[in-house]
Amino acid sequence: MLSRYLLFIFAWVLGVITLQWQATLPAVTWPLAMSCLALGLWFCLRRFNQSRALQWLVLIVVAFSLGFAWATWRAKIRMAQRIPVDLVGQTLWMSGFIADLPQESRYGPRFIFTPDADPKRAWAVDRIQVNAKGGPFGAGERWRLQLKLKPIHGVVNSAGFDLEAWFLQQNIAAIASMKSAERLPGFSAQAAVLRIRAALRQRIEHALQDAPYQGVIIALTIGDQAGIPKPQWQRFALTGITHLISISGLHITMLAAMGMALVLFGWRRSAYLTQRLAAQRAALIAGVLIALMYSVLAGMSVPTQRTVLMLLVGACCLWRARPMAISAIWASALAVVVLFDPFAVLSVGFWLSFLAVAYLIWMGANRIGREPAWRLWLSTQWAATLASLPILVLVFGQVPLLSPLANALAIPLVSVLITPLALLGLLDPTGTLLRWAEGLFANLRSRIAMDFDLAVAGAGARNQLSSHGYIASGDAGCGFAAITQRYSCTLARVADATALVFYAAA
Asked: Across the chain, which distance is largest between two alpha carbons, in Å?
């Protein structure tokens, strides 16, 4: 039964992937018709007790067709927002609000603009990337902009970054150059969280005015990476810790696990609380809420949404408190993520996350007894490295050799110590905790640089790869298991397995 369930999920995901390979969008009707015919054939086969293998083969066709139809329908909705040909190069006045934290570039401010619905305008669009001038521009502010519209386009280079696919994932329908602007009164009610994030960014900038890693602390707390200088990014890439300099699945999972452990520890010591709700379930609720709050603080980016969905799937499986194969949990998380966002399959990070976790599941299967925490951590690190190698070689043509050693030092410090300290610093009016967090990261960075400078110098530019951090994409599973193993036997056994599914790299 398990193998059939996995085949059904894989067929559905394969249907979604197949749509992304098409040069043009087909009609939704023919895959739906195929699924209906296959489903009718399955009912006939079942009615007359025909071969079970043939029945499951027909169900696989049904799953593939439904996945293809679902991805086609979602793609048609998103492509319908692309700029019409007759508006390319035209200049329009649009009223709306700034839907993200504006970023400074060498060409001026850049931000995402969400226009108001206008019945007089035939083109309905949700998000436009605006290259502005002047300012200042603030998150959530309402503006009336004069925009010269351009279509989404990128360089056709199989070895380069696919900009058009990235815009499609982010649901950005057009690019625009701002010609003039008028500030409108008030703020958008839809951007309340954005305004909070902007206020927190200003607070961190004030507390860490001259700190060299101010941008890192901002990235770890509110997910805004615009303040990190390019030389720092290059150094992070050379040592393979770029995945730590953002709010990724690793940090979300670690914080959720720490919150679960604290709630579990306190809940068990109250007879009143345990009589009303099991400590394990209270810990699950706390972990999910912490993950949601941290993700909202990060702006709910696409990779963050994947992480939250995986956490929710794992939490639901834990809540059932019934034996369940970890491969089924992994497949369920895969199906839910692709159902929520069919365009996730275009992301390299998506495949690195799920394939690395699948390899970790296979590696940890059929274990007898418990390994020491340090051995589990090291084996997970190397397993994630080996699982990532084929994808990194296939996509980037290079392999970061320094990443496993650097991550072995950086992951526990950044995820378990520096990030929680920085988040607590947001509540500290004196800014002391923020300065401590920045100082700890500066000390960590200097140690990594001292340990690996000779190797980096030998590797030179050959190892410069912005995606080095993906090599440690499965580390959260081991970290989560190491934390929860000290607590209840039931929760620890299940968490040791499902935590591998919880993590989705950014």
From this structure: 77
